[in-house]
Amino acid sequence: GGCERSDVKFQLCFSSDSSPLICLSLKLAPTYSKLEITNAFMVCVSKRMIFEGTLKITPDIAERFESDDLTFSFRTIRVWLKRDSGQYWPSIYHTVSSPCSCMSYHHDSRRIFIGQDNGAVVEFLISEDFNKMNHVKTYPAHQNRVSDMVFSLESEWVVSTGHDKSVSWMCTQSGSMLGRHYFTAWASCLQYDHETQHAFVGDYSGQITLLKLEKQTYSTITTLKGHEGALWWDPVQRLLFSGASDHSVIMWDIGGRKGRTLLLQGHHERVQALRYLQLTRQLVSCSADGGMAVWNMDTQREEAPQWLDSDSCQKCEQPFFWNIKQMWDTKTLGLRQHHCRKCGKAVCGKCSSKRSTFPIMGFEFPVRVCDACFDTIKEEDRTPLATFHEGKHNIAHMDMDPSRGLMVTCGSDRIVKVNNSSLIVPACVIVFTLMPIQALRISTFQHYCQIIHEENNW
Questions:
Q1: Where are the bilayer-spanning segments (predicted)?
Q2: Which stretch of 173-177, 200-204, 322-326 has the lowest confidence by average pLDDT?
């Protein structure tokens, strides 16, 4: 989205077709004297080529710039088509009035929605040959930058969140505002269930709010506290995944209606991108340091216990340093409090001197456990349930196209990468003999994959 100084963020969106790719391009401010392209900026989204490009912007070191001068913004929309020569060339170049902050593209209807820094959402319709783009409507969605956006063809709504601390939903047929809900902090991320019209909105205060949207009203279903960051919603299993700055991922079992949550810890930095692959039952998470984790969610996992409160060690009964009375009575110094990650008991450092992994609870790295729990962990309990990979650059956004085996990552280091996702997530090949492959619909394909997964447990 719109960026300042060296904090550059790219957002890239795959098209379902193998040829066109829609992306946001960069427009430099006049104060920049040099634009250096270190690699060919050819976005080749195909099975035969992998793209890795770097855009580097360097001001003239002989001049001094004020901080306000070192700004640039995304103001253009480009559609790149693959020519007969095998290269990608821009077929559409469109300039908008305000910097672009987010984008939503619907392939079947060829409708693209652009969120802007001024709070507006602009809708365009792309021609069948991808050589022309016509303006359809401009929606006055927010009073500040649009942070995230989803278009629903089923309800003909565009749902968006913004830095004016609100979520709004508008009718794309009439262009009118249907409703708005305000939060106590900036709304940062959004997921939407097209069938039930439920919206999941994360904000900077660490809350995830679940809203039921109606045409002229809404209702607040629940609020999940203690997490903020990236969101991903799986409508089939009705699971919500959230990533945050505490380096962890939480799975919220919304469909189970039992308040079940699973904690996944395997990153060293803030988790900024999530994707759940329904076919293989795997969760892909990316962090700010470039770490990528693939979690096996098709296995029995246990919830991490709640940490217990106590004024003394629940193993040796030595007082903690705030327990003045017991310290005076026993004439001993207070100890620092720790918690065992396996049982949740409050223990001192002497009673929890050992470390161990425990993947069934989501701890892929060694964590503190009490001595009693350490003795109960068997060697087979330490078998990893996740694989880790290195993206080799800061990852702020990530998208995947499993059907073509492609993954795109981009970040504030001004690098956009399109990688072969089969190197990270092995492809699942299924041969059907029930009907001709020409007559197989996507919905039918997903249905049979669900049956095969349940009956064969893979």
A1: none
A2: 322-326
Torsion of CA 356, 231, 99, 290, to 10 degrees: 20
Indicate the length of the chain as a whole number. Answer: 458
Q: At which residue do the structure tokens 């959230």 appear?
A: 242
CA distance 160 to 192: 10
pTM: predicted TM-score of the whole model, two decimal places: 0.72
The whole-angstrom separation of Cα 436 and Cα 196 is 33
pLDDT, tens digit (0-9, with 9 covering 90-100), for 180-227: 999 989 998 999 999 999 999 999 888 899 999 998 889 999 888 867
Check pLDDT > 90 for residue 355.
yes
CATH number of 324-382: 3.30.40.10
Return the pLDDT at 257. Answer: 64
Query: Would you say the CATH fold of 324-382 matches that of 229-300+394-427?
Result: no
CA 350 to chain centre: 39
Distance CA(158)–CA(276), nearest Å, equals: 23
> Could you give the CA distance from residue 126 to residue 16 in angstroms, rounded to a whole number?
14
Helix (H) or strand (E) holding 448, with range, is: helix 442-456
Average pLDDT of the chain, as a whole number: 77
- Rounded to 5°, the CA angle 188-157-120 comes to 55
- Fold adopted by 229-300+394-427: Methylamine Dehydrogenase; Chain H (2.130.10)
Beta strand 12-13 with 386-390 is unpaired
Alpha helices in 183-330, H assignment, sequence order: 324-330
Helix (H) or strand (E) segment spanning residue 199: strand 198-203
The position carrying tokens 């109960």 is: 376
Contact partners, residue 410, CB within 8 Å, separation at least 6: 9, 10, 11, 12, 395, 396, 397, 398, 416, 417
Max Cα distance, the chain (Å): 86
Whole-number Å distance between alpha carbons of 88 and 84: 9
Calpha distance 284→264 (Å, rounded): 12
Q: Write phi, then psi, for 144 (nearest 5 degrees).
A: -145, -170
Beta bridge partners of 264: 249
Q: What percent of the chain has pLDDT over 90?
A: 34
Closest CA to 338 of 316, 358, 360: 316
Torsion of CA 338, 342, 345, 348, to 10 degrees: -30
Please report the pLDDT score of residue 426 as a whole number. 63
433: left (phi > 0), else alpha (psi -120 to 50), else beta? Answer: alpha
Distance of CA 87 to the CA centre of its chain: 30
Which amino acid, one-letter code, is at 186? Answer: W
Q: Where are the domains of the chain?
A: 1-140, 229-300+394-427, 324-382, 428-458
What's 416's DSSP letter? E
